[in-house]
Amino acid sequence: MAAPRRPSGGGLRRAPQDGRLEEINKEFLCDPKFSDEEDLEEKLAVFKEKYMEFDLNNQGEIDLMSVKRMMEKMGAPKTHLELKKMISEVTGGVSETISYQDFVNMMLGKRSAVLKLVMMFEGKANEGNPKPSGPPPERDIASLP
Fold first, then answer.
1. Maximal C-alpha separation, the chain
2. I need a surface site. Which of 26, 33, 63, 78 has the fewest CB within 10 A?
3. Torsion over CA of 52, 58, 64 and 66, rounded to 10 degrees?
4. Which residues pair with 62 in a beta bridge?
5. How far apart are CA 106 and CA 19, in angstroms?
6. Could you tell me where the DSSP H helices lie in the chain?
7. Residue 111 has what pLDDT?
8. What are phi and psi of 98, to 5 degrees?
9. In this structure, are residues 62 and 54 in contact, taking their beta carbons and an 8 Å threshold?
């Protein structure tokens, strides 16, 4: 008898990470440097969801392969060298992984990091044409190209 499969990225493993990221969000909310930021609480909630989506190993860091997957999912695949350069730009060359603090600082910061621009572009692109939900409509022969 085969062992039961666990759902990948399940809720129990994500709960501690969710709590850690929420604590970091509270620090940003209390930081006077970001007090003039519009809709900060909503932005942080969106950033947390995006970060958790791409933190494949649930370790609280986005590594090279996670960034690679993120860029491919957004339709902008990059080479390993380009990915390393993007990570270095976000972290200031200090780390090979992107922490949540680095991620939020990048998204809220004034600098235009490549990764920030790509993520903002993806957000704008998704606003205009939301994905349809449910099964596709039925088609007949006459409607085919």
1. 62
2. 33
3. -50
4. 98
5. 21
6. 11-30, 40-54, 64-73, 80-91, 100-108, 114-128
7. 62
8. -100, 115
9. yes
Residue given tokens 């572009």 in the structure block:
121
For residues 44 and 25, the answer to whether their CB atoms sit within 8 Å is yes
What's the pLDDT at 46?
86
Tokens read off for 108: 């809220």
What integer pLDDT is reported at residue 117 of this predicted model?
A: 61
CA-only gyration radius of the chain, Å = 18
Would you mind telling me the total number of residues written for the chain in this entry? 145
Cβ-Cβ contacts under 8 Å for 114 (sequence gap 6 or more)? 85, 86, 89
How far apart, in whole angstroms, are the C-alpha atoms of residue 14 and residue 22?
Answer: 12
| 29 neighbors 70 (Cβ within 8 angstroms) | no
Alpha helical stretches, state H, 74-129: 80-91, 100-108, 114-128
The per-residue pLDDT for 142 is 83
- For the record, the structure tokens of 90 come out as 């976000």
